[in-house]
Write a structure and sequence with these properties.
Number of strands: 11
Distance between the termini: 69 Å
Helix content: under 10%
Mean pLDDT: 87
Order of helices and strands: EEEEEEEEEEE
Shape: globular
Low-confidence stretches: 4-8
CATH architecture: Sandwich
Number of helices: 0
Largest sheet: 6 strands, antiparallel
Strand content: 35-45%
Length: 135
């Protein structure tokens, strides 16, 4: 009996990673909302394709913990959130064709600080600078 065997990823004709880094642009707070832009990158350049990425909010600058949930996390104008879970603390998003995503984090409960953590395809983390809401 013959069995089909899938070749390991290293033998795939497709590249193994769509992106290997992410950069962030953190906007100013306006009406209890902070917009965070995420640009997915590969080899030091912005990617030029849609890619799915897992992200979560942490209250730790190293991404070592999950934060208490903000009031909401929603897509801004770029990309789409396809798999929100854990009360808006973590989610999967898909970038636009130029590798960018932007999200709106809403927190009306007073002073709070979050860090957006992008999980790269190899499992490593890229953590934003502080996303700080005023009192």
């Amino acid at each position: 009996m013959s069995r089909s065997v899938q070749e390991p990823a290293s033998h795939s004709p497709f590249k193994n990673w769509a992106f290997d880094n992410a950069t962030f642009v953190i906007g100013a707070e306006a009406a209890n909302v902070i917009n965070v832009g995420i640009q997915l990158r590969y080899g030091g350049a912005d990617i030029a394709e849609r890619s799915a990425v897992r992200m979560y909010l942490s209250d730790d600058a190293n991404g070592d913990s999950i934060s208490a949930a903000p009031d909401s996390v929603a897509i801004g104008t770029d990309g789409v959130i396809i798999d929100p879970y854990a009360a808006s603390q973590s989610f999967m998003a898909v970038s636009e064709s130029d590798g960018d995503i932007d999200i709106d984090i809403t927190e009306a409960g007073g002073a709070d600080t979050f860090y957006l953590v992008v999980i790269l395809p190899d499992g490593s983390l890229v953590v934003s600078s502080a996303i700080t809401f005023a009192a």
